[in-house]
Amino acid sequence: MNPHLLGLMTHKIGSPGRFSRHADAALAAGFSGVILFTPAGVHVERGTVTGYVRQGRSPWRKQSAAHPPVAIDLGYYTTPLTNQQVFRVKNRTRIQFTGHGLGNKWTIQNHLLASPLLASHLLPTKPMDSVDDAIAYAREHEAIMIKPINGKGGIGILKLCCTGSAYRLHENRKPALSGGPGTIRAALRRARRKGGYLLQRWIDIRNPEGRVFDVRVLMQKDGTGHWETSGMAIREGSANSITSNLKSGGRAHEVAAYLNRLFPSDKADALMEKLCELSVYIPPYLEERYGRRLADLGLDFAIDRSGCLWLLEVNIKPGKAVIRQVYGEEAARRCFLMPFREARRLALSATATGDERSALPL
Fold first, then answer.
1. Taking CA 228 as the corner, what is the angle to CA 115 and CA 72, rounded to the nearest 5 degrees?
2. Phi, psi dihedral angles at 35 (to 5 degrees)
3. Bridge partners, residue 65, by sequence
4. Using one digit for the tens of pLDDT, what is the confidence trace for 288-329?
5. Among candidates 101, 67, 143, which has minimal Cα distance to 347?
6. CA 254 to chain centre
7. Which of 6, 16, 263, 302 fits 31 for a cystine, CB–CB 3.0-4.6 Å?
8. How far apart are CA 85 and CA 90, in angstroms?
9. Average pLDDT of the chain to the nearest whole number
10. Is this model's pTM higher than 0.85 or not?
11. First and final CA of the chain: distance in angstroms?
């Protein structure tokens, strides 16, 4: 193994030049270069990786190299075959990854429910085993969110409302569908062809202007193995959006000032305190619960109109756009570099002990 070379694993390379920013971050963290590869490029038995290497500022060059001692997983894996390949790489090689997967949204939900501190901040949620499940859940709660069990970025999320025998199904950037159970069942059957879904009770998290908002908290290892809050921001959805994601035209705002506009100052202060408490608690709790190393988490919280705080999701590969909008370019650059500093710490520790797998717990 080359302790000075950082691995970058992704689902698709295309042009390696797209990852030059990542290679520059590795240099800034103290690595001599990177090797960029997909799970299919890892040869377990031979102990080699075929991919693209960039040493220093030299051009990218396709070649094979020894397994790097440490790698950052940048990929999004959507097929069973690729997921099997990822499992093989992470469990049958001596490559240490800065972070590991947590499973689908239902798996994560069940791990979170095991914590008494978190359970009271989780919404009623269940898998959608059939389209009739969604109809029944909407009748029970009047309005529900229907989320892809492996979704990201708010893509494919639906909202289903029930008033008597009338239903309304809404998806961002599409006309709402109104009708009886038969109409809704047909639409949900079409959606299910794309994969599994979760059903979750809807809560009113709209501001006085009617825009949906939530709070994204970015938690990162600081390069010494300790967690820190790199930033938090309000994500406010565009008009008529059912989600708050920035990719759907939303905007980011500073949290404390935003909450003070919505709630009395003592309530806003209490919400800030609870946000900080839960955010600091969740990363080490999940590491211990899963027995896996993590390094970069995006925590999504919602605050309903009555001021109740809810934990919506935990993301293992969070974007940094909210940090840039609220804190500026320098803060966003620092957040981008953090995983590379943590990777360097792991590499140096592995070199010092001569044992890549046992160098650090988790």
1. 90
2. -125, 125
3. 49
4. 999 999 999 999 999 999 999 999 999 999 988 899 999 999
5. 67
6. 20
7. 6
8. 9
9. 92
10. yes
11. 21
| CA–CA distance, 329 with 92 (Å, rounded to integer) | 39
The residues near 278 (Cβ < 8 Å, ≥ 6 apart) are 117, 118, 121, 299, 301, 309, 311
Cβ burial of 295 (10 Å; 0-12, 13-18, 19+) is buried
> How many angstroms separate the CA atoms of 99 and 37, rounded?
16
pLDDT band, residue 361 (cuts 50/70/90): very low
Matching residue, tokens 């797998």: 357
Q: Are 63 and 53 in contact (CB under 8 A)?
A: yes
3-state secondary structure at position 212: strand
Pairwise CA distance, residues 313 & 304, whole Å: 15
Helices (H) and strands (E) in the chain, counts: 10, 18
Pairing of strands 48-55, 197-201: unpaired
| Residue 110: partners with Cβ closer than 8 Å, 6 or more residues away | none
Look-up of token digits 């501190």: 117
Residue 126 amino acid letter: K
Cβ–Cβ < 8 Å for 297, 254: no
What is the amino acid identity at position 89?
Answer: V
Q: Which two tokens stand for residue 120?
A: 């009271």
How far is the C-alpha of 307 from the C-alpha of 275, rounded, in Å?
12
Q: Crossing angle for the helix pair 265-290 and 255-262, nearest 10 degrees?
A: 130
Place of tokens 């804190």: 327
